[in-house]
Design brief:
Blueprint: H1 3-36, H2 42-74, H3 82-106, H4 113-117, H5 119-142, H6 148-152
Helix pairs in contact: 1-2, 1-5, 2-3, 3-5
């Protein structure tokens, strides 16, 4: 394998792997675990939350590092591509909201207890935002785009099929 591709490949795998684990784990908690545990003791909820926290916090760090690296690599390719930057900027802002909600849901600070008390609702909102982020990511990855230099030569612009 070309050594220039190694770090980008690892970064992409880390980013997508985190998405699979954190979004999948959150979906499991929202769809399966929370309805079953509705009547269980708060001690069990605390134990589950503390265990899940060990995945959420490192996952957020991996998302931030790999996402920043991936973005820095993509900027030169998308220079002058306003739609790309608008969509990726929106994705980044939504991701920060998701990270905050995920951290609050696994946290133990008294000031955010109201959110944890209604965890099912807030986990659902977090999952909805995560799915919007995935949708934006998928669109940005496959959409045809043009660089400013392409406008000087319209025949070089790829057409969507």
């Amino acid at each position: 394998m070309d050594t220039e591709l190694f770090l980008p490949l690892i970064s992409r795998w880390a980013h997508i792997g985190c998405a699979i684990v954190l979004i999948g784990g959150s979906a499991f908690m929202w769809l399966v675990l929370q309805p079953v545990l509705k009547e269980e003791s708060s001690d069990l909820h605390d134990r589950i939350r503390n265990r899940w926290k060990k995945f959420v916090h490192p996952g957020v760090v991996i998302f931030l590092v790999s996402g920043l690296y991936n973005y820095i690599r993509a900027v030169p390719v998308h220079k002058g591509d306003g739609l790309y930057h608008a969509l990726v900027g929106t994705k980044m802002l939504l991701a920060l909201v998701v990270f905050a909600l995920a951290s609050i849901l696994v946290g133990n600070k008294p000031g955010t207890q109201a959110i944890r008390d209604d965890a099912r609702k807030w986990l659902g909102i977090t999952l909805l935002l995560a799915l919007v982020i995935v949708g934006i990511s998928g669109f940005v990855k496959i959409r045809p785009y043009s660089t400013p230099a392409d406008f000087a030569n319209p025949e070089s612009v790829p057409l969507a099929e």
